Amino acid sequence: MLQLIKNRPFFLYLFSHTLSNIGLGIHLFTMSWLVLDLTESTSSLGWLLSLSTLHVIILSPFFGVLIDNWDRRLIVVVIQLLKGILLLTVPILLLTGTFHLYVLYGISFLMAIADRLYYPASKGLMREMLCKDQLLSANLVCTYPKQIKGFVNQNQSGMYPF
C-alpha cells in the first residue's frame, strides 16, 4: 500500500479524489440545510434530494458508453472544474440577492450528473496509471475518501439545530 502512495500520479489522484469526496459531503449537507433554512419545508428538501438521485436510474446506463469513448483525464479535469464553478454560483447568487430555489435544484441536478460521470471516469483513469496487480490495493485505498466523506456527513448532520 505504501508503494501506491509513492506512485506520484496515483498519489495526486488519491489526494484529489479525497478532496472531491469531502467537498461533495459538505455540498450535500449545506445545500440541504440551505433549503430547509430558506423554505422551512421538508417537501422542498425532498425535491432537492430527488433531483440529486433521480438521474442515476435514468442516465447511468448511458454514462459508461460515453466515458469509454472519451479521454478519461479530460473528463475528470473538466468535471471537477465545472463542479467548482457550480458550487461558486450559490454563494455569489446569495450575496447578490438574486438567488432562487429553482437554481439550487438545477445546480444539485447538474452536480449529481457530474458525479455520475466523474466516478467511473476516475476509476478508469486509475486502471490506466497502475498495473493489474496494484488495482486491488488501490481500490481499497480509494474507499478511504468515501469513508471520510461519510464521517464528515455524520458529524455535520449532528449539528442541525432541530
Automatic annotation (TrEMBL):
One of its GO terms (cellular component) is plasma membrane. The chain crosses the membrane at residues 12-35, 47-67, 74-93, 99-119. Pfam families: MFS_3. Signal peptide: none annotated. It is a multi-pass membrane protein. It is found in: Cell membrane. Keywords: Cell membrane, Membrane, Transmembrane, Transmembrane helix, Transport. This is MFS transporter. It comes from Bacillus salipaludis.
